[in-house]
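Sequence only, no structure available. Ideas?
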Amino acid sequence: MPITRPARMTGKRLLTAAFLAMLAAGTAGCGTTDRMSTGSVGRGNGKPVEMMSSGELREATNRLGQSYARNPGDKNIALKYAITLQMNGDADQSLAVMRKLAIAYPKDRDVLAAYGKALAANGQLEPALDAVRRAQTPEYPDWKLVSAEGAILDQLGQRDEARQLYRKAQDLKPNEPTILSNLGMSYLLEGDLRTAETYLRSAASQPNADSRVRQNLALAVGLQGRFDEAEKIASQELSPEQAQANVTYLRQMLSQQNAWNQLKAQDKGKKQPEAAVN
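Reply:
I predicted one. Tokens follow.
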């Protein structure tokens, strides 16, 4: 899906946007239903939702919206509809669908996990954390939920606790690319680009790594000024439209004057003027 972002963003907001995209990988549901972050949404060519063009995504959203209107209590339809709404940029409506579904299925792990993701995407991090924790079964911990909890704690600034959870998730699911990606993005948010790149390269090298992991790696590489390499990574396995959108986004990020210095200054409580895109 093409990435759209405001033309003027501070370093902190740029990384927060990237983190929310990464969070989708960490808040996958359990079981056989389609996850809030990825997977086919039904009829058509079976293309994963994150690989759809904007036109394909609109078509899928409209089709699923019609199905949802006919049967709003169907869990699978509601989950798929929420996926496409989220990917289409309609986070508020996606959250409304998931909130209604969570009321209907208050103990369903798939639903609670997806509801937590929708809450996090809307910036409601504390309720998101509660939903993900309620979805977890301590005696049979699910690595996806452990990683998701870590991702939310990362956004809350609780880095040490988040990384402990990522490593717990790694014990449950060794070499899982989404966990490695979450860990890499944790260091990216902190400003440790080299460590972030190490984890993201490891994630991208796994056989089951998807395009989101590679986009996170492109971000880490691009923020270090190696733009040609970042552009090559960002263009893999995407349609020309998607690749151009991602490359444009990377160019916007790198054209920020002292974007990374802004981020570090903001973390120290300093205030710097927002830079314009060239």
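The chain has 14 helices and no strands.
Hope that gets you unstuck.
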